[in-house]
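Quick log. Single chain, no ligands specified.
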Amino acid sequence: MYYGHTIFEKSQEGRRGYSLPKSEIKEYKLDEKLKRQSCPKLPEVSEFDVVRHYTNVSFKNHGIETGFYPLGSCTMKYNPKINQDIAAMEGFSTIHPYQPVETTQGLLKIYYETQKILSNISGLDTYSLNPYAGAHGELIGLMIIKKFHKDNNDLKRTKIIVPDSAHGTNPASATVAGFESVEVKSNKDGTVNIEDLKKVVDDTTAGIMLTNPNTVGMFEKDILEIQKIIHEAGGLLYYDGANLNPILGMARPGDMGFDIMHINLHKTFSTPHGGGGPGSGPVGVTKRLKKYLPSPVVRKAGDLYLIDYKDEDSIGQISHFYGNMGVVIRAYAYLLTNGKERLPEIAKMSVLNANYVKESLKDVYKLPIEGICKHEFVFDGLKDESIDVRTLDIAKRLLDFDMHPPTVYFPLMFKETMMIEPVENESKQTIDHFIKIMRTIAKEAKKDPSILKNAPYNTPVRRLDEALAARKPIVSFKDYTDSLKED
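-> predicted structure:
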C-alpha cells in the first residue's frame, strides 16, 4: 500500500534549508561518551521543500476548522480566534512564573476571577486551575476524596462507584488513585439504576463518579436521590465535567449535591481540543473540602493578588507552577465575551441541535433511547437490521463526504453504537447537510452494501486492516519502506 511521499523520499544529498551565521561561541569539547557514533539519518531538503511538504500533510488532517466534527462526548466545537490572540499577547507570552507577584498582578487577577466565575457556574465554593486535563482533574478529585476519608480516620472506604456507561477515564482514574472500582448498572436510558446503587453502596464506599447529563445524553432525573444515598452512606459525589456544555447557566452540579468536580476548559470554554494538548481540568470543591485543593492557590489580600503555597492540609503540588496558563486565559476571554446572560443560550442550542438531528434521522437509524436528549444521543446502527452493514462501515463512508464520523462503539450499552454531538455553534445549514449525507448513506446501504464496506474512497489512505494497524503500526521510515517491499 502506498501512503504518499515522505520527507525522507524528498531528501537529496547536499541540499540545505538553512544558512546559519558563524558561531561566536568558542569551541567546546564534549565528553566522548556524549557524542554520537554516527550522524543521525536526517532528510536533506530545501526550505521550500519542507514548507510545501508539511503544508500538504496538514491538508490531510481533519479538524474542526476543516469540516463538521460531531464526535460524541467530546464537544468538538469552534474556538474563537480572538481568544487565541489574547492568550498570545506579549504581556502573557513573555511572563515568567518566578517573577515577583507585584509584576504579575494582571495574570493573577485573571486566575482569581476565573476561579470565581467557575464557582458561580458550577455551584461549588472554589477552584484550583492547576490540573492539566480532564483525566488529571479526575485524579486530583479522587486524591481529595482519599485524603478526606483519611483525615476522618475512615480508612475502610476503598471503593469508588462508577456507572457501566461512564467514560473510560473514570475507573482508570480511580485505580490510579488507589481505589477499587465498583460498577453500578444503568437503566435502558443510561441513567443510574437506583435499586442496584443501593445494593453496591456500603460503609466501604468512598464516593461515586457521575457525569450529568450522562454519556448517552440523558439527564439523571434521580440525581437528588442518588446524592442522598451516597451522602447518607458517608461517601462523596464527584462530577465528571465532560458533559457540562448542555447545562451551562441552566443547572449547577453543586445544587445537585456534588462535592467535587472538574471542568474541561479545552472542551467547554474555548481551547482547541485534541492532539494531546494543551488542556486544563480545573477542580472545584465545596467549603468543607477547600483546604485539600492542590497548591499553589491564587488568593486576594486587599487589592493584592497572592500565590499561596502554605496550606498544610493540601494534597500538595500536582503541576508545574499554575497549570496551563494559556488555556486559562482563553477560557477567561470566552467567559467574559459570553457573560452570564449568554451561557444558557450555549446550553439551549446544543440541546436543540442534538434533538433536531435525532428526530430527523430516527426513521432510518435505530434509536434505542426515546425522549428528549441533551447535547448528544445514540443510534444503534441502521434501523433496517436485515442490511449487512455495520456502524464502522457508516463511519468510513462519512469520510468520503469530508465529515468526521461520530464516536462509534462507545458506550458499550448497544451493539452498533453511534454517539453524535453536533454542538451549539454549528449552523442549521451544516446540520441539514449532515442529515442529508446520513440519509444518503442509509440509501446506499440498502441499495448496495459493498459501497460502504469498501469505503473510504477519497481519503489519502483507503480502509486499513485495523487489527494489523494496531498490532504492527508503521511508526518509522524503516517500517514504511519495509511495508512497501512487502506490497
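The chain has a mean pLDDT of 92.
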